[in-house]
Design goal:
Order of helices and strands: EHEHEHEHEHHHEHEEEHEHEHEHEH
Shape: globular
CATH class of the largest domain: Alpha Beta
Helix content: 25-40%
CATH architecture of the largest domain: 3-Layer(aba) Sandwich
CATH superfamily of the largest domain: NAD(P)-binding Rossmann-like Domain
Radius of gyration: 23 Å
Strand content: 15-25%
Bound molecules: nicotinamide-adenine-dinucleotide
């Protein structure tokens, strides 16, 4: 996404936008250059009812809730924006029934999430997470012992990655995996095959296309050395005891999708039995208070739901929101 596309001053009457959970400075600049009045000072949830009616647009992330009763108090509201993907904090159907458009930025963070998947994959393959925990206390007294205990590393080149959910993030994960020389086995409810375009150096000048077909879940489970989940969260865990039993011994499992897509009890059992070599978790049941036995497990590489938390992804989110709002008021 570029900043230098043509910016038009859109309206003579100033459109007021409340950015309540932050925005990258480039997104704010784009909105201001287009002639919008942008307020980025946060209004507390309890005060929104009194103050939001003065605005035409509210942009939120996950912190601010935009529920039906608040929407009903704001007859001037024309658009609600969510920086990110999940719309659980917005009453979307109610907003739409009132003619208020709802925008999100589903594609802006896909590369960031896919890179985090490989941060976990490399960490688990070479025991970096365990080593980082042990070296500060034992690195000067038990160096040789630690070296021996982390000696059986695994290289990713030549291994097979199973990707459950072959949408935006699944495809970005596949691009990185192909670049590493991994075999890719995607699983998806609706996609049977697709041509995955790979741009070298992020440029259209040098690109190639790889035809990938998807596989049945059981076939992937039996063959993958690394399995990464990229499906929307559902009521029931997609990976439970039955699925773990079908995996190869010593598999690495990574979840950067939603807490609950992996059954956490079944994961702990699979780690104890040795079926799973290590797990990478960015998402948890009961966030922001995940269970301690997961957090303290030596074979789990952990991050606190930071899949989209890169400067680049936040800038993409800000620019994408700004572009959507500019297009909205330009209609
Ligand atoms: P997407 O909609 O582009 O792709 C999801 C894919 O999963 C679709 O192709 C769909 O057909 C497939 N799918 C759905 N149910 C399935 C099932 N039961 N079995 C197999 N395939 C199934 O979504 P996306 O943008 O790639 O996001 C994927 C997940 O990543 C979402 O859960 C999202 O919430 C999560 N996410 C996490 C972070 C983070 O910070 N960790 C950031 C952004 C998104």
């Amino acid at each position: 996404m570029r900043l230098d596309f043509k910016i038009q001053k859109i309206h003579s009457t100033m459109i007021k936008i409340l950015i309540n959970d932050g925005i990258h400075p480039d997104g704010k600049l784009l909105l201001e250059d287009a002639g919008f009045e942008v307020q980025t000072e946060k209004i507390e949830q309890a005060d929104l009812e009194a103050q939001l009616p003065a605005f035409d647009v509210i942009c939120v992330r996950s912190a601010t809730k935009v529920r039906a009763d608040l929407i009903d108090k704001c007859p001037n509201l024309k658009a609600i924006c969510r920086g990110g993907v999940g719309l659980d904090n917005i009453d979307v159907a109610h907003a739409k029934s009132k003619g208020i458009e709802v925008y999100n930025t589903p594609a802006a963070s896909s590369q960031a999430v896919a890179e985090l998947v490989f941060a976990h994959a490399f960490s688990l393959a070479r025991f970096v997470h365990t080593s980082n925990r042990a070296m500060p206390s034992k690195g000067d007294s038990e160096f040789k012992g630690l070296k021996k205990s982390f000696a059986k590393g695994m290289q990713l080149r030549g291994k097979t990655i199973g990707i459950i959910g072959f949408g935006r993030i699944g495809q970005e994960t596949a691009r990185i995996a192909l670049g590493l020389g991994m075999k890719v086995m995607p699983v998806d409810l609706v996609i049977n095959e697709l041509d995955l375009k790979l741009n070298i150096y992020d440029s259209d000048d040098v690109s190639l296309s790889v035809k990938l077909k998807t596989y049945a879940m059981d076939k992937m489970l039996a063959n993958a050395d690394v399995i990464s989940l990229h499906v929307p969260g559902g009521k029931k865990a997609l990976i439970g005891a039955e699925e773990f039993a079908k995996m190869k011994d010593g598999v690495i499992v990574i979840n950067a999708a939603r807490g609950g897509t992996i059954d956490e009890d079944a994961l702990l059992a699979a780690l104890e039995s040795g079926k799973v070599r290590g797990a990478g978790l960015d998402v948890f049941v009961n966030e922001p208070t995940p269970r301690k036995d997961l957090l303290e497990h030596p074979q789990i590489s952990l991050t606190p739901h930071i899949g989209a938390a890169t400067v680049e992804a936040q800038r993409n989110i800000g620019l994408e929101l700004a572009e959507k709002l500019i297009a909205h008021f330009d209609k």
